[in-house]
User: Fold these one by one.
Assistant:
Number 1:
Amino acid sequence: MAMGDPSYTSRTPRSRELFERARKVIPGGTSYSNRFFPPYPFYVSRARGSHIWDVDGNEYVDYWMVHWGAVFGHAYPPIVRAAVEQVEEGAHTGWSTEWEVKWAEAVGGWFEAERVKPANSGTEANMYAVRLAQAFTGRKKVAKVEGGWHGGFDRLQKAVSYPYDKPASLGLQRDRATVVIPFNDLDGAAKILKKERPACVLIEPMLGAAGAIPAEPEFLKGLRELCDGEGMLLIFDEVITGPRHPGGLQKLYGVKPDLTTLGKGFGGQYFAGAGGICGRAEVMDLLNHVERPKFWQRSFLGGTFVGNPLSMRVGYTFVRELEARKDVVYGHIDGLGEGVRRGLREVLEDHNFEAYVTGLGSLIGLHFTKEMPRDGRTAARTKDVKLCQRFFLHMLERGIAYLTPTSIHFAISTAHTKEEAEGLVMGLEAFLSGGEGVAPARP
């Protein structure tokens, strides 16, 4: 099946019409580039549970799940009720409310953090966390890993997509204060960090955009020791992974960062204002405007919608639901995730086809590559992009949706069923069995 196949265009005439309208007013026709795929994206009209429906009435099982943030699926009743009640009481007033206190207590309890501060998004959380680290250490440089995505902040939008020597966006200035280190290569990272001695190391415990690639335990433990030895702060970006394991992946790995940045689910899965920083009191208290009343004495974090009661209430509800249903939630989503990874590997083995499966818990990556991805570089340099695109449309034809067409990864929610999860495995089996221009990669 080729991109732009008639079977897709014949089923989505209203989406095609909307895209043509959008191109006249929105650059590129979509609000975010990763929502586009050729010849045009479908436009969603409704979402519930694990399913979405487009404007033409086509139904899909959704594995994008609000950019991986919807652990409870779409329209989860307790979150919807909390949102509706808060909208009626006042979505935002510009004043402090009880909900920001309850949210901070819940988030602090989840991560066992001494201090918590809300922000407007994961991007803002990372931006403010880096600045906070610079304020605490007095150093200018910051370090991030290849393939790590931390939002559209200039200092961090570097070495995101392969090839890493290309600017991640037009208009970015060359910033020598941003140091890039390899992922899952402790010796390589240590050599750079000891030379550059940045204020902080910012890292996702599992690379998200690069394809759900987990950090090796010794790599994270080694970074913790390096940061302690060199006076650097270790910051975990748990925007994606924070709610995907009790206490975040830091709890799973047994590595405690100095700061954690969060977003997505911690704003209740759906709403703006979904972000924040938590961590050590000694560092976080540089944000304290009461003890540091003069603006030049403290690090800034703020904004019109920071801590708005709608986001705080639904975010609080989200965390409390995770806490109350912890055994059921993680038994279900982790069980499905492990079953899918095992099933995908079995299909690849049965067909003697060279591809690789990554992920942890409820997050899954599938890589049409010539080598097992252990970092963003190995995930990208031998990727068969055309094969990824064919698989994407093959799965759409089967009523299975995810993003992006060239990066195959799936996020499972509590709303997904065992039968739906098995559909991912069956989809790969059908793809490799039915031709699709696929030839076994192993001799």
Number 2:
Amino acid sequence: MKIKTFEEVPNNPVDMEGAVNVKMRLLLSQDDGADHFVMRMFEIAPGGHTPLHAHDWEHEIYVLEGQGIITLEGQEYSLTPGHVLLVPVGKEHQFKCTDPKLFRFLCIVPATAQG
């Protein structure tokens, strides 16, 4: 078993090309004994965004705080705390902070996911 608080986990800038004012905490991973999934917390500052990109894996998202949008396959959807969404395999997507405060969400991906 592994128990910790998110504040104990480093909050590292996302260095993916096209990312602006995005940080990520790797909350649970194989290093913690999570063999099948990785739990990440993304924090996007006001005006920030992830790059427009796609992956060879799905990911599940849970919005914790702030307001943002996801652009998925060219369509925009508003996101607020409590929203849960599935980003399917291979679908182009981007997250943007539309809040004057931090936009924070959990993202769960397979442990084999890269990027």
